DNA sequence: CAAAAGAGTTTGACAAGCCAAACTTGATTG
DNA sequence: CAATCAAGTTTGGCTTGTCAAACTCTTTTG
């Protein structure tokens, strides 16, 4: 069985691959997200290579092998199901479950996880809208565009928050920007890099396009109109 | 925060103190229940002494300090609440939850545990009938006498199984001897060290007095009659 | 294109825990 | 009471995972 440390590395690599342009993870990047030194990462990576979880040339980025990817998806499945449980069943705050799940995910057997999955009704996404891989490692694909790509007067539904930072999540939660929430884009100020939304009956909410790019939404069908914008 | 290893030691010491005549735990005993060598235990015990979780003279048994006892009760609380959850909510088999809880208990924060406790309705006992300490370390006391102390024709209700061995638990479960189960003592054969029970409508069940001493029961009020017997 | 900067690697050290094996105590017991 | 033996302790060694710091590539850039 892989250790908790190995699982954390693999999970981090998976995430970095996903959103790095080259589809690779770097030593420095891993060190930074895991909060450890480059030296430690180098040591661990050479072990992961030996056990065929990752591959890559010396002095260059690493990629997960098929085995590594399977493991990463397994860890992600555990993590996200646990988050659903903590929020739906135990009513923990949406923004505080990440670190809890971070520890529990390493202690839960496949059997318990499957029962939990059934108990929760086989959810497709976690509380942040992240898709939950199924037991075979298949990830349901959700579509959604960054808020920062929308235009004035567009209406939409939040589908996903791609930023686990708890301060960011608290902000988002405080303004009811959870998945499922409906909103309208009321104003965009490209010079100020700002976007303003109307969410429910709450006061108008403004945030930077940078922050908005971490929130994915689905446009609600709305006759004719063009779109396009860049962060 | 105490490591998982420290928690396991403290928990083991607590259990050994409870049912050793001298109220102490021995190095050899701890080594045996944790499945490690005496040398390793000696090393850890000296660390536990330094951190004031246990006390005791050199070359003699150890006892938990107040701090140590508090920690032990905390771990026990986690363990048992998790067992209740696994059985009641996730429908795991009664006999397979122990090892699961053994791992999960080290990964669950106080906050999650409190929510879980509330979700489960503040149970007093776990699926084996073991009392669950409350958040302040108070253990509800349950009375119950070993089955081996009962007499023929006595009727009772199982309250607790004091033996976590999964083969024993499977046996017990297979014969419906769970806590809450009603039974009648139909026969006792002191020479054969055997006791026979009638549980529900099941066929008569015989077991050794030794095994019976690991099952605690409460007698059901039944007019006049004396009792007494020894394992 | 040479030098600085970044990124990756290596080395030596450390903390937890564990083991095996030698050694010391203390408790029988013949 | 001396011999024995179980129980406790010590020592040296191993693994995992970490750090700090020196070193070496590779890339960027003046």
Please provide a written account of the structure.
Two copies of one chain form a homodimer. With 231 residues, chain A is α+β, with helices and mostly antiparallel strands. Chain A has three domains: 4-64, Arc Repressor Mutant, subunit A (Orthogonal Bundle); 77-141, Orthogonal Bundle (Arc Repressor Mutant, subunit A); 145-219, Ferrous iron transport protein A (FeoA) (SH3 type barrels, Roll). Helix content of chain A is 40%, strand content 16%. Chain A has helices at 4-19, 27-34, 38-50, 66-89, 97-104, 110-119, 166-174, 209-212; strands spanning 54-55, 63-64, 145-146, 155-161, 182-189, 194-199, 205-208, 215-219. A six-stranded antiparallel β-sheet of chain A has the order 3-8-4-5-6-7. In chain A, strands 1-2 form a two-stranded antiparallel sheet. In chain A, helix 1 packs across helix 4. Chain A is globular, with a radius of gyration of 19 Å. The interface between A and B is medium-sized, with 18 and 18 residues. Chain A binds a DNA duplex (30 and 30 nucleotides) through residues 3, 5, 26-28, 36-47, 58-60.
